[in-house]
Amino acid sequence: xxxxxxxxxxxxxxxxxxxxxxxxxxxxxxxxxxxxxxxxxxxxxxxxxxxxxxxxxxxxxxxxxxxxxxxxxxxxxxxxxxxxxxxxxxxxxxxxxxxxxxxxxxxxxxxxxxxxxxxxxxxxxxxxxxxxxxxxxxxxxxxxxxxxxxxxxxxxxxxxxxxxxxxxxxxxxxxxxxxxxxxxxxx
Length: 187
Fold this sequence. Notes:
Structural class: mainly alpha
Helix content: over 70%
């Protein structure tokens, strides 16, 4: 019976020692997790970055120059159409019904060509502008990624109007830092 008591006492002692070790580990874990964790958070207003990014204005000027050159052809077509309408209006009383109908059809066809050209050119401009914006936003996102990695940020949020960010303190706004990075590293 004495050996049973000794065995029971040893089991209780071991169990108690194990519990003491677990309690010590739990206290250490709690101490580690209860220490305040510092997160580094930033905000970037992508629209503000676009306004400050020199490449955006340079590329827009190039696009505007291309559009202006293409608009000259469209303007020429519009002038020819106006001239055809004026000529028809001046001569329509002297024309036979068949001649009037032919001229009206010719003017209508000319107008349809003009409309088609105008819509095609506008679609091209819209497409090029979308491609530029996609490239600019990609540049911005890459710059944010590099700044975030280099400066050990945990989270960088888009603070542009219309985003889901309702408020942020100006002290965490990284927009100008991103603009400076982009302008310094423009290709």
